[in-house]
Amino acid sequence: MRAVLSRPIASRWTGKNFASSERRIATGARAAALPIQGLAEAGYLTNETVFSLTELPRRIAVIGAGPIGCELAQVFQRFGAAVTLLEVAPQILIREDRDAAERVERALVRDGVELVTGCKIAGVERRGTEKAISADNAGGRLEIVVDEILIGVGRVPAVEGLNLEAAMIEYDKQNGIKVDDYLRTTNPLVYAAGDVASAYKFTHLSDAHARMILRNALFLGRQRVSRLTIPWCTYTDPEIAHVGLYAAEAAQRGIEVDTYTQELSEVDRAVLDGETDGFVKVHVRRGSDEIVGATIVASHAGEMISELTTAIAAGVGLGKVGDVIHPYPTQADAIRRAAGLYSRTRLTPFVAGLMKRWFALTR
Ligand SMILES: Cc1cc2nc3c(=O)[nH]c(=O)nc-3n(C[C@H](O)[C@H](O)[C@H](O)COP(=O)(O)OP(=O)(O)OC[C@H]3O[C@@H](n4cnc5c(N)ncnc54)[C@H](O)[C@@H]3O)c2cc1C
After folding, report:
1. The domain spanning residue 320 has which CATH number?
2. Of 56, 72, 150, 187, which one is least surrounded by beta carbons within 10 A?
3. pLDDT at 363
């Protein structure tokens, strides 16, 4: 999405003619910096500059095992570089459930990535054409010597140089522009969309914001950010896709959930594809089939999550999802099978007993 700032924002605060005078800010985000001693002098790549490389570095250290760090670490390793992935947390992809992150962790290590978790970078030193990273973890001091360093620690909102104060638009450098549930800034004539105004930084969310602003600003719509169902995906191999709440988040909000997990090792298509290291996990509100969240680890998890996203957005329960006929053999059939696990819990002891006897007789 391109940034839209065609006229100075402050000059448009007339309070009149709302629809024609509204303005949008969509300046996005930029690579976050890391205050590591010696890093600036040694030189480093960011999640923007890395795409301008014309030669494959022989050895590369990726600092930060978030989505972009993990994706790029796997890419460089598969291109043939020797990759060391350094992460301060005890696991990669800290926002994801541990069981999901572990599947990707295993895949990275299988590919040959040297993974160092729980480590704190002490400093970087340039030695001729090489860069030496000193880091501490439970095992003591490590030295990692590489040709390139890639900082993969995420993105911060691009709020500088906009003179937002003059337009009375509140912001902070970490969280970006303050918006209400309709994406209006503290100046009611100005809306903000995308990375500059959102904790979630995704292309599809920026697109949803832009469409929401059009409706809210031009067609007097009342669409709310809080009502959006936002899926996301990390494009490692396997991918991790998620929508809705994690179990821990549900617990924090006092929502009791039951969780149904279908391993891909029991799904014929995944076995045929040799892609069995994954699962579909669905959380439903206890006592109902309302889907409150789901995580999928699979080669095409990003494709598969849309079925559950649609179910959440349309208020379709997991029982109904289980009634939907899925083509065989597909990996998405794992979703139907997870729903089947839920449906089995709905059987009364009497019906369960009848079915058990029926299957025993017909065996
Ligand atoms: C390496 C990488 C991989 C990613 N992968 C994915 C992915 O797989 N899936 C996904 O959903 N998201 C991904 N993202 C995130 C995604 O790129 C962003 O969420 C998305 O681009 C945000 O859109 P936006 O319109 O808010 O901002 P941007 O796309 O960043 O657009 C903002 C524009 O505004 C311009 N601008 C900035 N300041 C000013 C100014 N003062 N005046 C005029 N113009 C200005 C910028 O130059 C830029 O062109 C990735 C990001 C990175 C860095």
Report:
1. 3.30.390.30
2. 56
3. 63
- Pocket flag, ligand 1, residue 26 (CB < 6 Å): yes
Using alpha carbons only, give the angle 349, 351, 354 rounded to the nearest 5 degrees: 105
Sheet holding 140-146, edge to edge: 120-127, 130-137, 140-146
- Binning pLDDT at 50, 70 and 90, where does residue 167 land? very high
Q: Which residue's CA is minimally distant from atom 46 of ligand 1? A: 27
Return the pLDDT at 4. 38
User: Is 250 inside any structural domain?
Assistant: yes
Task: State if residue 242 touches ligand 1 by the CB under 6 angstroms criterion.
Answer: no
55-92 confidence digits (pLDDT tens): 999 999 999 999 999 999 999 999 999 999 999 999 99
Q: Residue 162: CB within 6 Å of ligand 1? A: yes
Higher local confidence (pLDDT), 186 or 221: 186
Nearest residue (CA) to ligand 1, atom 24 = 28
Same domain, 197 and 244: no
Ligand 1 centroid to residue 257 C-alpha, Å: 35
CATH number for the domain spanning 209: value is 3.50.50.60
d(CA 267, CA 117): 32
Residue 356 belongs to a domain: no
Query: 82-92 pLDDT, tens per residue?
Result: 999 999 999 99
How far does residue 29's CA lie from ligand 1's centre (Å)? Answer: 6
Residue 329 is predicted with a pLDDT of 98
